[in-house]
Each structure stands twice: as structure tokens, then as C-alpha cells.
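Protein in question reproduced for absentees:

***
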Amino acid sequence: MSDHCYDKFFLDFDFFNAPCLTALISKLLGYSIVAGAMMVKVPQIIKIISAKSAV
């Protein structure tokens, strides 16, 4: 988050600033996609660990 957007959100409490809100939503969407991709692999990792083999 840029300094400008940080100031707008947390100092001015301007949550509807369009450019900053768009950047925040984009960043949150990217993080959620990465987190979702990681969560999909968790069951497979648990099976590998419990079987002690990747065969």
C-alpha cells in the first residue's frame, strides 16, 4: 500500500477514495487467489506426510 493510500485510509478515514480503493481490492484479490491455491494443496501434503512416501 502506498504512503498516499495509507494516509487516506488510516489518517483521513476516506475509505471511498476510488484509486486507493481499487488498488486495495486488487491487492486483496491477489492475496486471496494465492491463499486459495495454497489451501488446495494442503490435503495432498497431509496425505504425503502421513504415508511417509510420495509414491
The chain has one domain: 3-51. Residues 3-51 form one domain. The chain has a mean pLDDT of 89.
